[in-house]
């Protein structure tokens, strides 16, 4: 979803980072995860990593577009009405997957299994650095 977010922000000259919104989202997701049985501090660190990974991917896209003096993206989806609802649905699925898999994710003897299962990821085509950031909490 990072390319869709980045295209909208590029078209509207918006900053990639929105710290107040990020803090709200992370806190809310931490509370939701806790209600599902995933420790809030772990969930907050996990979702913070997802946001950081998205910002990394967006920054990399912006850098490339800036170098090549990229114009507007005429087909960029609207951030509020299209992309965020998609992100909300994906995040809800992710929350439930984390809760369902918490026994494995929290087992230190299974860390290598978890990390191995996370590769290969399609997002590596976009940003290997972002993938590394996104899955880092799974190895802790």
UniProtKB/TrEMBL annotation:
GO terms for molecular function: chorismate mutase activity. It holds the Pfam family CM_2. The keyword Glycosyltransferase does not apply. Transmembrane segments: none annotated. The keyword Signal applies. Keywords: Isomerase, Signal. Gene3D superfamilies: Chorismate mutase. Its EC number is 5.4.99.5. This is chorismate mutase. Signal peptide: none annotated. It comes from the Bacteria. Pathway: Metabolic intermediate biosynthesis; prephenate biosynthesis; prephenate from chorismate: step 1/1. InterPro entries: Chorismate_II_sf (IPR036263), Chorismate_mutase-related (IPR051331), Chorismate_mutase_periplasmic (IPR008240), CM_dom_sf (IPR036979), CM_II_prokaryot (IPR002701).
